[in-house]
Design brief:
The protein has 88 residues and is mainly alpha-helical. The protein has 4 helices and no strands. The two termini are 47 Å apart.
Length: 88
């Protein structure tokens, strides 16, 4: 901020709260770039995938034998609505 702008704010009676708040916000956001993420190991990724897969199929009945076309459509529709509703 140059001296002319500061003098203009003081002349009009406008407090310097907004420019100072903006400067503080910039400084805080600039500090966010200093955090370095830790990469996941392959074992952690595999464990997460297995846990997610087990959770995804928990509570779903398995097929016990051959199905008719209408039963397969119903089965697919039922699972599709469940997945859509769960992700929404």
């Amino acid at each position: 901020m140059n001296v002319y702008v500061v003098a203009q704010y003081k002349k009009r009676g406008v407090p310097l709260v907004k420019p100072i708040a903006g400067l503080i916000a910039v400084l805080i956001l600039a500090g966010c770039g200093t955090i370095k993420p830790e990469p996941l190991t392959q074992d952690e990724i595999t464990a997460r995938v297995n846990r997610d897969r087990a959770e995804m199929y928990r509570g779903q009945e398995s097929l016990s034998g051959p199905m008719t076309c209408s039963a397969a459509k119903f089965f697919a529709l039922k699972r599709g609505i469940f997945c859509t509703r769960k992700s929404a």
